[in-house]
Amino acid sequence: MKNFSQFLSENLQEGNEIKPKPDFSKYQFWGLYFSASWCPPCRQFTGMLKNFYDEIRKSKTFEIVLVTHDENERDFMKYYQKMPWLAIPWSEKMAISYLTRICKPQTIPHLCIFDQDGNYVTCGARDDIAMYGMKAWNHWEDIAEERRKYRQK
């Protein structure tokens, strides 16, 4: 797979606005966050992820895109308003379905991380953040470097 960001919608939601998809190559890492308002572990992890996001962006280039599993737009919007990152718009059901099929989250919350070239780094980022806190970033750098070496062989 060349660049995973090609599978995102051309337009993403930022707050209440729909904007063109950013250039993901400007982020050292970016993530797809599969979550839903009806899921208690999701609500708990969203707070932890928000703290990580706010802190890491003080010194690193990082973005997250929410891939909702909410059952209706009202619940999605109410939940998403608590998040500072981007989202696949509610209306983009095909993109949400496609990303879910590709990433195959067994449970939610589920966080997949990609590097600036759109290469897969890990889908264990939820556990990484829970276990390592801010040091999860260093762990992702190590994984990304190993994957780069492997691709160069």
TrEMBL record:
State its Enzyme Commission number(s). 1.8.1.8
PANTHER family assigned: THIOREDOXIN (PTHR13871), THIOREDOXIN DOMAIN-CONTAINING PROTEIN (PTHR13871:SF96)
Q: Which keywords fit this entry according to its UniProt record?
A: NAD, Oxidoreductase, Repeat
What catalytic activity does the UniProt entry give for this protein? [protein]-dithiol + NAD(+) = [protein]-disulfide + NADH + H(+); [protein]-dithiol + NADP(+) = [protein]-disulfide + NADPH + H(+)
Per the record, the similarity remark reads: Belongs to the nucleoredoxin family.
Any one Gene Ontology molecular-function term assigned to this protein's record: protein-disulfide reductase [NAD(P)H] activity
Instruction: Supply the enzyme class, top level.
Output: oxidoreductase
A Pfam family found in this protein is: Thioredoxin_8
Its recorded name reads protein-disulfide reductase
PROSITE patterns registered for this protein in UniProt: THIOREDOXIN_2 (PS51352)
Where the record annotates domain Thioredoxin, the positions are: 1-149
